[in-house]
Design a protein that fits this description.
This protein is an alpha/beta fold and about 290 residues long. The chain has a domain of about 200 residues: Alpha/Beta hydrolase fold, catalytic domain (Rossmann fold), CATH 3.40.50.1820. It is about 40% helix and about 15% strand. It is built from 13 helices and eight strands. The protein has an eight-stranded mixed beta sheet, sandwiched between helices. Helix 6 crosses helix 9, helix 7 crosses helix 8 and helix 9 runs parallel beside helix 10. Its EC number is 3.7.1.8. One of its GO terms (cellular component) is membrane. It comes from Mycolicibacterium hassiacum (strain DSM 44199 / CIP 105218 / JCM 12690 / 3849). GO terms for molecular function: hydrolase activity.
Length: about 290
């Protein structure tokens, strides 16, 4: 019998040197770290609340809320860099030696970084879209462009336009979801943090910095991932199109790719049951 998990009965917090990290905890068993994506009104709870009952039957689910997204404290830097650091601080604070990781979109990139830099601490790794680089499709993608437009002029309609780009089944974008997302997305502090990453100026500056820096692009170091990896993707993803999966699928040494039809960027929501079955089988295959 599945347990009922609510926002309040799963919410926890832990102090770090740079601020308080909040997270949701459910279930018992081996630790499963769940990392959320980016975008207006996003949170770990909203990404994974529908999956907790299933995964918590087998794992101690730990849904981390990244700094600067309106739930944990804002660490003040670039959201991706802060998320990478916060992941290490969080695992240290909970005294976890080794975790399996699920990362959605931006959270998948953070998970890849964690797996490369701390290979002894990651058992199995699951990503949901969001990593790699465009091979055939133009970049930035439709979803990223709509995201930038929202942060340039954060209106409710622009939020709706972006949300609709996230899914194949448009009926998933309900009034309740829109209002829930709008309440957090329009918060001034959360907006300020997000603009450090997704304003057009910030995005262009980040791309230019990565081109000039004496370090390889993130997709060029994925051969360093030692953990067995499951790449999950929506065939109809308009945020990170399917061709982005080709480099990670080919270069991560022990990677497999599962593509879900009639599904957009939110695989864990839009292909919920199939995603859960696929991921549970992968995590159990020791």
């Amino acid at each position: 019998m599945m347990s009922t998990f609510t926002y309040d009965n799963t919410l926890r917090e832990v102090a770090t040197k740079r601020g308080v990290l909040r997270y949701h905890e459910a279930g018992d068993g081996p630790p499963l770290l769940m990392l959320h994506g980016s975008g207006p009104g996003v949170s770990g709870w909203r990404n994974y609340r529908g999956n907790l009952a299933t995964f918590a039957q087998h794992y101690r689910c730990l849904v981390l809320e990244f700094p600067g997204f309106g739930v944990s404290d804002d660490f003040g830097g670039h959201p991706v860099i802060d998320a990478q650091a916060a992941t290490v601080e969080f695992v240290d604070a909970l005294q976890l030696d080794r975790v399996d990781v699920i990362g959605n979109s931006m959270g998948g990139g953070v998970a890849i970084d964690f797996a490369i830099n701390h290979p002894d601490r990651v058992g199995r790794l699951v990503t949901i879209g969001g990593i790699g680089t465009n091979i055939f499709s133009p970049g930035p993608s439709e979803g990223i462009r709509l995201l930038q437009e929202f942060y340039e002029d954060p209106t409710r309609q622009r939020l709706v336009d972006w949300l609709k780009s996230m899914v194949y089944d448009q009926s998933l974008i309900t009034e309740q979801l829109i209002e829930e997302r709008w309440a957090l997305a329009s918060d001034p502090k959360t907006l300020e943090s997000a603009r450090r990453m997704y304003s057009k100026a910030a995005y262009a500056a980040m791309m230019e910095m990565m081109r000039k820096a004496d370090v390889p692009m993130p997709w060029a170091v994925m051969h360093k991932v030692a953990a067995p990896t499951l790449l999950t993707w929506g065939r109809d993803d308009r945020v990170s199109p399917l061709d982005m999966s080709l480099i990670p699928m080919r270069t991560i040494p022990n990677a497999q790719l599962h593509v879900f039809p009639n599904c957009g960027h939110w695989v864990m929501i839009e292909a919920k049951e199939a995603f859960e079955r696929t991921v549970l089988a992968f995590l159990a295959d020791r």
